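call fold(seq) -> tokens
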Amino acid sequence: MLLRSPGSRVRSAADSDGPDDEPGPSRWTKAGTACAVIFGAILLSSIGIIASNRTGGDSTAAGREPAASVPAIGTVRAPPRPSTTDSAGSPTPAEVTWLQVGLGALPFSGTAGPARIRAGVPSGFAHTQAGAVQAAIQILGRLSWSAQTKASMQAVVTASTTPSAQAQVVLGYGPPTDPSVIPQVAGFQVVAYTDTQAIVNLALRFNGVLRVSPATMRWVAPAGSFGGGVAGGAGDWKLAGAPGPLGQTSWAALDDLTGYILFSGQPTKAGD
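ret:
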């Protein structure tokens, strides 16, 4: 017979934990408390892992982000203006030697050309921006300030200009004879460049006065050739358009060299 006092819960044999059971929380209460403790531990661990991953992830992402490349000494050189439509290497010729040709000076580059000079005719220019710049200076120079003989000038017209330019270039003048009117190359800018055509502006200094001579250069490949590689090959740069006659009076005045790449030098010896 079970006895109970008012307000007390009836306990059966099933509720007893055994003969040594003492009054206290039931097995279900203990189990609930244990589950709460375990869940709390798991929750704290998860928060710690998430925080750790977030910190580590941000650090890793920051580590992957490339840092700006700044030289330790000096300043960052601004790109030349105006920008070109095709890079094809640096527009500035490398390994340059300035030689005296006629009364003027012309640059010779070990990488951009000319590779050959035959009877006063330059050839073998690299199929690059620098090659186009070298060709413009060499060809224009040999048709004006560095021209040596009327025959050599005619040879340059025949070998180093396109048919359309030959029609425009009228050799109604001869080689210069007055050293005081010989210009110096002060700089250049590549206005536009593709694999087949380049527009180069040459800045020339006449007794302290700057003038600009534009030159349109065209890459001409021999018949049956695909034009060669980027560093040279079958074909060459030829003058396709320039002011004519190629004299000082035909070149427009230039205020300053803003936007031009400085390019000049004094000849150390005579050249061909």
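Residues 99 and 271 are 5 Å apart (CA to CA).
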